[in-house]
Write a structure and sequence with these properties.
seven-stranded antiparallel β-sheet, 2 helices, Pnp Oxidase, Chain A, Flavin_Rdtase-like_dom, 10% helix
């Protein structure tokens, strides 16, 4: 079987966007950086995000619990690192508003997807959290913040071609 480091280096060649997952646990605001995110289904509208089993943020994610996926734009690298740390008040000094469910929504995102937890599935050293999408918004002029080969990158968009 492939060694974990070699596997990580290999899958690191797949460029991904960077998200910040936000939720609440009582009055506590919770946020964590994740790049293992994907759309899952159009009907019903579902997404998935993979979260390390060691994450303290998992305690808040239960079936039918609200959360948001904040897709970061290239100007939000500071937000990426803010929510990647494991301690302290990650929201201190952050620009956010609260959703109707009280979930923090980061301001000036590339896109925001508001969900409720549909299911939590065990997957190796992570949990796969699926979310039923309740609301979504996006900035169609923004450019994404990218994770590639273990580094944060900024993608410059070329002219788009209609397919």
């Amino acid at each position: 079987m492939i060694e974990p480091r070699e596997f990580r280096n290999t899958v690191g060649h797949f460029a991904t966007g960077i998200t910040v997952i936000t939720t609440i646990n009582g009055k506590e605001k919770i946020g964590l950086t994740a790049n293992a995110f994907s759309s899952l289904s159009l009907d019903p509208p579902l997404i998935l995000v993979c979260i390390d089993k060691r994450s303290g943020s998992l305690k808040a994610l239960k079936r039918d619990h609200p959360f948001a996926v904040n897709l970061l734009k290239k100007s939000q690298e500071t937000e990426c690192w803010r929510y990647a740390k494991s301690s302290g008040d990650k929201f201190e000094g952050a620009a956010y508003k609260l959703s109707e469910d009280g979930v923090p929504i980061l301001e000036d995102n590339l896109a925001t997807i508001e969900c409720v937890v549909a299911d939590i599935i065990e997957g190796g050293d992570h949990y796969i959290v699926t979310g039923l999408v309740k609301n979504a918004s996006y900035d169609d002029q923004g450019e994404p913040l990218i994770f590639f080969r273990g580094k944060i990158e900024q993608l410059e968009l070329a002219k788009t071609v209609e397919l």
